[in-house]
Amino acid sequence: MKPQSQPDLHAWWMPFTANRAFKQAPRLLARARGMEYFTPDGRRVLDGAAGLWCVNAGHGREEIAAAVTRQLEAMDYAPSFQMGHAPGFELATEVAALLPPGLEHVFFTNSGSEAVDTALKIALAYHRCRGDAARTRLIGRERAYHGVGFGGISVGGMVANRRMWAASMLPGVDHLRHTHDPARNAFARGQPAHGAEFADDLERLLALHDASTIAAVIVEPIAGSTGVLVPPKGYLERLRAICDAHGILLIFDEVITGFGRTGSPFAAQEFGVTPDIVTMAKGLTNGCIPMGAVAVTRSIHDAFMQGPPGAIELFHGYTYSAHPVACAAGLATLDIYRREGLLTRAKALSGMWEDAVQGLRGRPHVIDTRNYGLIAGIELEPIAGKPGARAFEVYLKCFERGLLIRTTGDTIALSPPLIIEPAHIEEIFDTLARAL
Ligand code: PXG
Q: All domains of the chain, ordered by start, with CATH?
């Protein structure tokens, strides 16, 4: 007989998980409050990852629970094809208000992956609507993560997420080189000094394919899942300038960087570079109800608003686009962000955070640290022939000692809830240092 607290582990095929190893030695979470998780036997685990980069306002927010309950009772579901509801319009208006001016229209999805695929479809369709149907190519970047849809893995650049489906990628996709340059930028504080010229790799692709065939370039302003790659100073500005010079749309995938992670509402504002399209998810609802969104400029939106007024302008959408319960969660979440100043709080803490990250320099196996806002990447020397094993060992040790982190390859990624206090920062780095 299995103990009562442990469910049957057989049926759930878990995502991005070593299923066999996990089921031999499961790690279960049962409750969450503020900065903390608790295991089924009541052990406290400090959340150094905001779940998976999403619980920006901390766990167990009663205002969100109350808003979700109210919405479930008032109207549990409503179609959004040819029908509408107030929470959908209100949330779109509020999201647009958080973005740089010009990004005025918001299309709702249920995840970051769907937001990315939606953004790519809008970019391709936009050029067609304008009579520029030759713009069919999409440019992603090496080491990018844009979710797991076929569009997202095609423009993405993480080999393990692509090789099984190599023959089924979108056609006409090419990739910029990544911006990781440890020889010049190791242990950078904030934006690395070197590498603006990596943006010129776009010129190489334009020379190869001809600019007139390229619809859009998509990048994460800070690449998260690939191990925290902060854009070199001047890099995003240069990408923007090249796109502008050639009529190419620039898409920022802000699924991780959106909603205060960098110290501004979006990385677009933090880095002073305005894209044409922004994808988001995660922090939009504080992670508690699945939701994603795509924001576009007025001119992109208006390019679709042609033909007879009774015609559907974009043949795209999901049963749960703007799900009223997700919208209620989103509105309550944005309200908390506003009241508690969370969208800029990372700025006040980033100095202390940076010093704590830098404090790991010289610890065993640490070959690089990277940080921005309330994000950190700590790269470890791999064990020969066993990539990822060193960081995962640290992950397990941290969990034993009551700290949840994330690892990708041999890089540890930290992205705590934005409600974090200085004492939590000390605890995270003490625990991590001991585990190392
Ligand atoms: N774009 C970016 C930039 C992301 O980081 C997605 C799209 C996909 O979102 P969905 O909601 O479909 O998962 C992501 C997701 C990690 C980690 O630990 C990162 C993500 C998801 C899970 C784990 O790095 N990012």
A: 19-61+342-435 (3.90.1150.10), 65-340 (3.40.640.10)
